[in-house]
Write a structure and sequence with these properties.
This protein is α/β, with parallel strands linked by helices. Helix content is 62%, strand content 9%. A hairpin with an 8-residue loop joins strand 1 and strand 2 (327-334). The N and C termini lie far apart (69 Å).
Length: 525
């Protein structure tokens, strides 16, 4: 669409200049041709305006689709795929997506138009004015694509280095903000500030290299091409008018159309910076989208554990990427409706077992089944549909109480939200808040107490209404005074569900049908 609009605008303007030359030779413009010239001018202006609007619309649409693809892949990869990459992923989903979308929608079309409209203008010049002049100017125009291609090859490493420095700066800044309190307590704030300044300077130098390449291209295009074309057109036209081969009007038309030949090429210099950074961002996004995700296949076991409320772990060995095995040869079967407590000291692998059940982690050996689905081969979303999870620290999104509850049930009515809060023992406290369900919770729930955040997570788990409830040390972030209320809410949530409780404090365990103690290196007793 961008190319077609550029062609239409250039064609209308070139034909207008031909008419101007004819009018000069005729000594005036009759009323009929004048109307045609006005129509051509209007068409050229309309195509230019629509082209600018379309470029902005396409840019926005491309950015929306690319950001959705990037974020969806993050969710597909799960916790292990995003672990330690928060800054990189933030940079990818924001700046990289913006630059890549601008490159795809705001650069490729205009640059294609810029490189092809001169040939279209020269075709009009050859047909309507003088084929000899058009042919000579075409030889100069054909030099532009090789020059642009050469600069792109030279600038590719510069663009890639620029994206890397920007990613490191974004990651470092985000990590420093998130850990600011810890850095201050550890007296590491000044050292972190120095490191951020170093990364900022590294990024600035990378940006300067990109801009230097951009300015060099502008100089080459303007000096070596634009000036050459204008001078060549003037010399050729003057010579042919003087020899009588062309009329004065034809000569003026050639000079006017020469401005169209060099005008679009100026776009190359204006958009080259977008091209360098956009191509680098697109390669980065392509690598991210090409990273493997779990295959969307479902396998039903034949060992009787295919009930939606069952959990089965068979001779599993697992560990986190790049680390040693945390659990080895571990097996556990939880029957539908059973309450099992998995206990053990810190570091023996309880949270690793939780990650395996949630399909955040794939076992190195053995298999994990949830509701009849093998977590290694099934769609992770299908596995998690069987689970309601309340973890050590509830993750709350920036938004209101209602927003965080509707993550589990987007269509839930206000009455159902209040019912969930009532079950979690949080109804009275939310009702006392000035804005009720619309009360903001802050980033990561900072405007709520630890107990309130956990009970909000319990209410969210109840709204999810999954057959298996996974409790991963849900009372670890509250004091002993708040633990009783939290356990009472958990007991109400657990009614009628299969429950796997992970804890290291005996008081944090609900009444269980059996207790499994996880020993070091994944053993059990």
């Amino acid at each position: 669409m961008s190319v077609a609009l550029a062609w239409a605008a250039a064609l209308a303007t070139a034909m207008l200049f031909v008419r101007v030359g004819v009018a000069i030779d005729a000594g005036g413009v009759p009323s009929g041709p004048l109307a045609g010239m006005i129509a051509l001018a209007f068409l050229a202006a309309a195509c230019t305006g629509v082209g600018a609007w379309f470029s902005q619309w396409a840019d926005s649409e491309a950015e929306r689709r690319m950001r959705r693809a990037v974020v969806s892949r993050v969710f597909d990869q799960g916790v292990t795929g995003a672990s330690g990459r928060s800054g990189e992923l933030l940079s990818l989903a924001t700046d990289a997506v913006e630059r890549a979308a601008h490159y795809r929608a705001g650069f490729l079309g205009p640059i294609a138009g810029a490189l092809t409209t001169p040939l279209l203008v020269l075709a009009v010049m050859a047909i309507g004015v003088d084929a000899v002049t058009a042919g000579r100017l075409a030889l100069l125009v054909l030099l532009v694509p090789p020059v642009i291609g050469g600069f792109q090859r030279l600038a590719r490493p510069i663009g890639a280095a620029y994206r890397r420095t920007q990613g490191r700066l974004t990651a470092g800044f985000l990590e420093a903000i998130q850990a600011m309190e810890t850095l201050v307590y550890a007296r590491a704030a000044e050292r972190t500030g120095v490191e951020l300044a170093r990364r900022g300077e590294e990024h600035r130098l990378g940006l300067m290299r990109v801009l230097a390449g951009n300015q060099l291209l502008i100089f080459v295009v303007d000096a070596a091409f634009s000036l050459t074309v204008v001078v060549a057109a003037a010399v050729i036209a003057t010579t042919r008018v003087a020899s009588g081969a062309l009329s004065l009007g034809d000569g003026i038309a050639i000079l006017l159309m020469a401005t169209l030949v060099i005008g679009p090429v100026d776009v190359v210099g204006q958009f080259f910076y977008i091209g360098i950074s956009g191509r680098a961002a697109q390669r980065q996004i392509g690598a991210h989208l090409g990273e493997p995700a779990a295959a969307a296949s479902v396998t039903v076991p034949t060992d009787g554990d295919g009930d939606p409320g069952s959990v089965a772990i068979e001779d599993v060995t697992a560990g986190w990427p790049g680390g040693p095995p945390v659990v080895t040869g571990f097996s556990l079967h939880v029957r539908p409706g059973e309450r099992v407590a998995l206990v053990g000291p810190s570091g023996v692998g309880k949270s690793t077992v939780s990650a395996l059940i949630q399909a955040h982690l794939t076992p190195r050996a053995g298999s994990v089944w949830v509701g009849g689905l093998d977590t290694s081969t099934a769609d992770p979303d299908a596995v998690r549909a069987h689970l309601a999870v309340v973890e050590q620290r509830a993750f709350l999104f920036l938004g209101s109480v209602a927003d965080n509850l509707r993550v589990a049930s987007p269509d839930a009515s206000d009455a159902r939200l209040w019912q969930a809060l009532d079950l979690a023992g949080l109804r009275a406290e939310v009702a006392a808040m000035p804005r009720g369900l619309a009360t903001p919770v802050g980033e990561h729930g900072t405007l709520l107490s630890g107990g309130q955040a956990q009970r909000l997570a319990i209410a969210r788990a109840w709204l999810r209404d999954a057959p298996v409830l996974l409790l991963d040390e849900p009372t670890s972030q509250v004091d002993l005074a708040g633990e009783a209320a939290l356990l009472a809410a958990l007991d109400r949530l657990a009614a009628g569900r299969t429950v796997l409780m992970i804890a290291h404090r005996p008081g944090a365990i609900l009444a269980a049908d059996r207790v499994v103690t996880l020993a070091p290196r994944g053993g059990r007793r």
